[in-house]
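Weekly sync, protein design subgroup
Attendees: M.S., D.O., the rotation student, P.L. (late)

Item 1: inverse folding check
M.S. brought a backbone from last month's batch and wanted to see whether the design step gives back something sensible before we order anything. D.O. pointed out we never logged the input encoding, so this time it goes straight into the notes. Structure tokens as presented (476 positions):
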């Protein structure tokens, strides 16, 4: 026990000697006053260390929170400088504006009923719905596989994306318009009422804008034995009846890229076999069409299917015939009939379909002769695509041609559309333009009276890789 006390005394002496040694050293340096200040500073520092709390997790979170708060305040101040906030704007209001920007979301538009929202607004990214994608007919096994897998064909496909986008936009406008009209059209309506409602709806969806986008040709609403090219002129009081067979044929376009698509509307189920025959024939034509396919082979396949049906009306059976002088056709920019025809009976041209072409595959079935002729008052007109400059003497003809060039170009139009543009007393001028070959008239095409005709039609694109039925919908 005494030994332990001796060790403590020794340690005390050592500390005392070290303290005096340091003190003497400071005295020797003449810094006694400085040492006093230094000693007081050390005491204060030690006191602060004793009072300083230990670093805990809660303190760390608090520091991080403060740092984030400072950063947020700095960003808000920067936004305030760059924005148009007034000098009296408070920090609280700045924070609200900042949070509002973060929580803003884009709500996808939904089509109204009746349709009124433009297709481009429904699909602002430009990715319009695809049509039905089909493989080209297998004429050669290796060629068919090559088209699907070839990097070259895929690159060619991508190069035509602008064309496909325009066609798909026009096709979606057509789909939504016709789906609405299928529920809208009822017996008892006038044909003018039906056509004007359809055209007004389509114009809203496609956003009619001169020659950039709009309707590609007048609404055909041919009845019964009339197969095509009838739309009512002003004053036509024709009313749709329950027993009628009505062909609704209209077109839309974007940048001159045309969708030509048609369907047949009936209210009495006794015509079901007629509609079934024509729809089957059109789908056969679509299936047979493709790159390097001969046009005459498509016509043969269509006729075989069409004429395998028959229709019984009032106890009498009628064979359903393909109307041999009506056909499908190729489509070009601002040109509804681009030169090639797709027959719906055997025979015809051995010309082949080619890569990149656009076609309207349409078929007409009839309980009559299967042959149509011009009849009734003309309503459809179209400027001759190949016409050169023709001198005109009549001022009225010059003025009317100027209106046609500005509003329709080489797209088809009707007399109702001239009325809509404010044109009056134009029939003499229109006849003058027809006589000079500048404008071509397209009168209604009719089979024998008492017969019934039906039509179905789709637009297809022969893409380098696939065949796309652009206008296909859930309805047909």
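Designed sequence read out in the meeting:
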């Amino acid at each position: 026990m005494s030994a332990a006390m001796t060790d403590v005394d020794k340690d005390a002496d050592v500390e005392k000697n070290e303290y005096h040694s340091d003190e003497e050293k400071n005295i020797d340096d003449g810094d006694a006053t400085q040492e006093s200040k230094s000693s007081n500073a050390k005491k204060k520092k030690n006191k602060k260390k004793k009072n300083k709390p230990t670093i805990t997790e809660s303190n760390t979170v608090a520091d991080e929170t403060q740092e984030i708060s400072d950063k947020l305040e700095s960003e808000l101040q920067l936004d305030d400088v760059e924005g148009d906030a007034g000098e009296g704007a408070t920090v609280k209001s700045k924070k609200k504006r900042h949070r509002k920007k973060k929580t803003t979301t884009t709500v996808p538009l939904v089509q109204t009923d009746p349709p009124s929202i433009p297709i481009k607004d429904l699909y602002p990214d430009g990715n319009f719905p695809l049509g039905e994608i089909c493989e080209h007919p297998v004429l050669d096994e290796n060629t068919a596989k090559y088209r699907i897998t070839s990097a070259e064909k895929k690159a060619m496909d991508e190069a035509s994306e602008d064309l496909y986008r325009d066609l798909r936009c026009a096709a979606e406008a057509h789909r939504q318009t016709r789906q609405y009209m299928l529920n809208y059209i009822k017996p008892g309506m006038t044909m003018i009422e039906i056509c004007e409602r359809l055209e007004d709806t389509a114009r809203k969806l496609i956003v009619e804008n001169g020659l950039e986008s709009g309707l590609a040709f007048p609404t055909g609403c041919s009845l019964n034995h009339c197969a095509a090219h009838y739309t009512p002129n002003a004053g036509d009081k024709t009313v749709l009846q329950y027993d009628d067979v009505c062909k609704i044929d209209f077109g839309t376009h974007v940048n001159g890229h045309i969708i030509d698509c048609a369907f047949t509307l009936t209210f009495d189920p006794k015509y079901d076999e007629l509609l079934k025959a024509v729809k089957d024939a059109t789908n056969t034509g679509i299936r047979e069409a493709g790159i390097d396919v001969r046009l005459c082979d498509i016509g043969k396949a269509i006729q075989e299917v069409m004429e395998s049906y028959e229709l019984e009306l009032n106890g009498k059976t009628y064979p359903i015939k393909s109307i041999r002088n009506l056909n499908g056709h190729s489509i070009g920019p601002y040109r509804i009939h681009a030169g090639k025809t797709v027959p719906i009976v055997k025979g015809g041209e051995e010309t082949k379909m080619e890569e990149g072409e656009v076609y309207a595959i349409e078929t007409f079935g009839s309980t009559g002769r299967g042959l149509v002729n011009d009849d009734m008052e003309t309503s459809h007109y179209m400027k001759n695509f190949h016409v050169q400059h023709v001198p005109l003497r009549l001022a009225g003809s010059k003025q009317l041609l100027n209106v046609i060039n500005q509003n329709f170009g080489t797209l088809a139009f009707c007399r109702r559309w001239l009325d809509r543009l404010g044109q009056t007393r134009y029939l003499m001028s229109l006849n003058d333009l027809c006589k000079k070959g500048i404008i071509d008239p397209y009168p209604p095409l009719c089979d024998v009276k008492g017969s019934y005709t039906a039509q179905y039609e789709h637009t297809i694109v022969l893409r380098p890789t696939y065949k796309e039925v652009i206008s296909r919908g859930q309805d047909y």
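Discussion: The chain has 14 helices and 18 strands. Confidence is low (pLDDT under 50) at residues 1-62, 78-95.
Action: P.L. to compare against the previous round before Friday.
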